[in-house]
Amino acid sequence: MMERGYWIKSKPIYTSLVWHEKATSHLVVAQGQGGLAAIKLFQQMHPQQPVTTLYEHSDIDANFAITLKKVVPEDLHLLKSEQEVVSLLKRIMPTKRMGLRIYVAGSEGFIWAVAEAVKEFGIEDADIMKELTGTLARSIYCVHCKAITHNITTNIGKCSSCERMLFVRDHFSRHLGAYMGLMVDAESPGQLPEIEEIYP
Amino acid sequence: MASTFKKETFREDYTYSNSAEAIKRFPFPFPEDQYMYSVNIEPHVKGKVGSVCEFTFDVDEHYVAECLDKKITLEQDPGRYQALPHMMDAQWDFLELTMESLSQDYPQHFSLNKNGSVWTWENKPLGIKDTFTFGDSSTLAMEPFDYMGRQVQGDFVLLDHREETLFADAGIVTSQADWSLAFNVGMSWREWHGPVPRATELGVMDRALKHLLNLQFGSPVRRLNWTMTINPRLDTSPENYPQWGGDRNAVNADNVSDLVHLRVELQTLFRLPRSNAIMFSIRCYLINLKDLSTYSRWAKRLHRVQKTMHPDLIEYKGMTKFHPLVVDWLAKFDDGAALDVGTHAE
Amino acid sequence: MSMINAIVAAVEQVTPLVKHFTFVKEDGSKLPPFSGGSHVVVSMDIGGRVHRNPYSLMGSPEATDAYHISVRKQENSRGGSVFMHEHVTVGMPIKITYPVNLFSLAKKGHKHILIAGGIGITPFMSQIADLNRLGADYEMHYAFRSPEHGAFVEQLKKSCSSRLHCYIDSQGEQLDFKALLGDQPLGTHVYVCGPSSMVTVVLETARNLGWPERHIHNEQFLSPPVGEPFNIQLAKSNIEIQVPADMSMLEAIEAAGVEADYLCRGGVCGRCELQVLETDGAILHNDHFLTDSEKVSCKKIMPCVSRANGKRLLLDL
């Protein structure tokens, strides 16, 4: 239902990171493959205002961390998990002033976790520059049981909570950080369209 | 306006029905033989006596049963009510508008007494009587929008006006045509209307937004929208799609006129004074094809509209499976004679 | 457009140049509630010609027994403010529109910096009432020429107490915009109303410091500028109208008996926008509503403040 004729105005906009010229300070938050986006950012002309950088990575992306340590002149924080990123953000945000510019690079799930973490400080997601890196995997909100299932790479995914097979609509909710998932075989139980990987 | 309220259901055994009077006042939405998605906004001024636009809010024979159905839906899924914290002024605006309109338009059913900021509200059909302090949420059993949203037929969305657009920052939604408040809450006008096919392409939504941003207090507007629903079911939410989606398979040539309902939404929009928010009300009217064909003019017109519908719209409205049966059933009413423009029954 | 029939209940000279007017409803009932930052458009019949000027509502949005506006006398204006000062007296009937808000508070803001210059204080009076009621964090920065021109300072001291900061030009006090806006907590919004030079400085300062556009608010009603007379043609009404030097297009259209939409009459809201079907001259866009590309395209015009200099300007009206 409603697969056809769907426009995608609600889909978020992702770009490549570039420094804002006008700012009082900058905050760069990256994860995994997003480390490369952060490195590219630091290769651009360095801003005059102070920069704080948070990078979360696993062993696979250790090379990005080594490079970042070389190119980031000061205030670089290397972290091991999304939780560490979020709790550090909650500590440093209260000290920041208007004119802070925020740049995020990573998976879609990471980008929206950061957006959620800074929301309480009066930052709207539109004020955050976002670069999607690595995977196109989506987080899916099951409209039936309200659970969110992460890392869905196919057109149809199984809800991790109620186990319904969900069709992934191109309709994105910023406050949930997820696309809408709707039971695909409600009208004809058990009859599933072909499952394809479309968000590698 | 009905003086008695029917006992009926909008789920399971579906005892909902329309009286002859209700059929006659049904807000038929097609003035012409062809349907085009358009903004078709007009001032929400007093309509003819007995019509659904006679008063600010229409209270009809289904009032008590609809409020009960709403209560069941909210109990099963509290997520159908959402209000972001900055919408509290708009909540009180909503309470004031609904209480003042209902008590003025239907004094036999509702009364409002104000003693300074201490108000006493009585709703006789639902057996409610409460005294509270206007502006003080702690004096009501629930938030003011939730409280009155349960006492008026239809769905309500409160739109915050900022950044040259409107944000759906509060809602009480239990009779929606397949959209999810829990998912959409907080969305801007453009994000919210992302799913309407062909409309954005035509710039219709941008024009409608421009119009609404200039909506003035004291000058509400209205429009009609429509779809089709199997069974007289108010709660055709995506949340409960597994419960009602399969109903579409049950339609056949013998039962099409009983099962398929034309679902018309009377949408009204009001600027709210204290909050500068906009109240969007979506009131749903249901009629099965059999009752609708009481007036052959309507049956003829509906046949022509459905026969010429764009497939994208048929799909968007979820009618693909049973649409040919609807057209076939209506065909027998259509003698091909020309119909004058207008939605009147006779 | 629906209007409210009001009566002038009080007139008070507040400063040498500012008068304060109190309106009540003709039938004695309450006026509609409104939100902080709202304005009404006041209709004045000046020698058989109708002037309509927008003025901010100053009272508390809670107290709707009366509406309050203040008018600064503009000596070189087209007469609206002079009329209000010299001819409007207690007991006079006056027509006003329902309140409209084009300068509303950002309800999600964590802190609000209000900056007023001179008579630009008026929209903040009702906003302060809302901010106090909501218990919001704010600062009121008010700059004026000299002590005798500081309208409503005593009232503001009571309502804002330590949140009020005054800057008196004649005493050499200057507001340092960069210092003020350069050190505000996240989630702060800035609002400015005053002379256009002040508005420009505040907008530029905030933008240069990297404030997001959504956090910057201003209200700047324009008076319709005086210009050369020109002619317009209305396609639907099929008439030609001359727009005199001291009349706006919108006023000329209304004077000719043609009904046209409007809200703010100050080039802000966009309600009176008209489609230009043909033109042989330049359009003198004076509004804050159309985008630069729309202005260049010459397909739209805001008749409340804009003018033209050709012989032919065919409008879709």
From TrEMBL, chain A:
<dbReference type="Pfam" id="PF22289">
    <property type="entry name" value="DmmA-like_C"/>
</dbReference>
<dbReference type="GO" id="GO:0016491">
    <property type="term" value="F:oxidoreductase activity"/>
</dbReference>
<dbReference type="InterPro" id="IPR048037">
    <property type="entry name" value="DmmA-like_C"/>
</dbReference>
<protein>
    <submittedName>
        <fullName>Uncharacterized protein</fullName>
    </submittedName>
</protein>
<dbReference type="InterPro" id="IPR054582">
    <property type="entry name" value="DmmA-like_N"/>
</dbReference>
<dbReference type="GO" id="GO:0046872">
    <property type="term" value="F:metal ion binding"/>
</dbReference>
<feature type="domain" description="Dimethylamine monooxygenase subunit DmmA-like C-terminal">
    <location>
        <begin position="140"/>
        <end position="181"/>
    </location>
</feature>
<keyword id="KW-0560">Oxidoreductase</keyword>
<keyword id="KW-0479">Metal-binding</keyword>
<keyword id="KW-0285">Flavoprotein</keyword>
<dbReference type="Pfam" id="PF22290">
    <property type="entry name" value="DmmA-like_N"/>
</dbReference>
<keyword id="KW-0411">Iron-sulfur</keyword>
<keyword id="KW-0408">Iron</keyword>
<dbReference type="GO" id="GO:0051537">
    <property type="term" value="F:2 iron, 2 sulfur cluster binding"/>
</dbReference>
<keyword id="KW-0001">2Fe-2S</keyword>
<feature type="domain" description="Dimethylamine monooxygenase subunit DmmA-like N-terminal">
    <location>
        <begin position="6"/>
        <end position="128"/>
    </location>
</feature>
Automatic annotation (TrEMBL), chain C:
<dbReference type="GO" id="GO:0051213">
    <property type="term" value="F:dioxygenase activity"/>
</dbReference>
<dbReference type="InterPro" id="IPR054582">
    <property type="entry name" value="DmmA-like_N"/>
</dbReference>
<dbReference type="GO" id="GO:0051537">
    <property type="term" value="F:2 iron, 2 sulfur cluster binding"/>
</dbReference>
<keyword id="KW-0560">Oxidoreductase</keyword>
<dbReference type="InterPro" id="IPR039261">
    <property type="entry name" value="FNR_nucleotide-bd"/>
</dbReference>
<dbReference type="Pfam" id="PF00111">
    <property type="entry name" value="Fer2"/>
</dbReference>
<dbReference type="InterPro" id="IPR017938">
    <property type="entry name" value="Riboflavin_synthase-like_b-brl"/>
</dbReference>
<dbReference type="InterPro" id="IPR017927">
    <property type="entry name" value="FAD-bd_FR_type"/>
</dbReference>
<dbReference type="GO" id="GO:0046872">
    <property type="term" value="F:metal ion binding"/>
</dbReference>
<keyword id="KW-0479">Metal-binding</keyword>
<keyword id="KW-0408">Iron</keyword>
<protein>
    <submittedName>
        <fullName>Phthalate dioxygenase reductase</fullName>
        <ecNumber>1.-.-.-</ecNumber>
    </submittedName>
</protein>
<dbReference type="InterPro" id="IPR036010">
    <property type="entry name" value="2Fe-2S_ferredoxin-like_sf"/>
</dbReference>
<keyword id="KW-0223">Dioxygenase</keyword>
<keyword id="KW-0001">2Fe-2S</keyword>
<dbReference type="InterPro" id="IPR050415">
    <property type="entry name" value="MRET"/>
</dbReference>
<dbReference type="InterPro" id="IPR012675">
    <property type="entry name" value="Beta-grasp_dom_sf"/>
</dbReference>
<keyword id="KW-0411">Iron-sulfur</keyword>
<dbReference type="InterPro" id="IPR001041">
    <property type="entry name" value="2Fe-2S_ferredoxin-type"/>
</dbReference>
<dbReference type="Pfam" id="PF22290">
    <property type="entry name" value="DmmA-like_N"/>
</dbReference>
<keyword id="KW-0285">Flavoprotein</keyword>
<feature type="domain" description="FAD-binding FR-type">
    <location>
        <begin position="1"/>
        <end position="106"/>
    </location>
</feature>
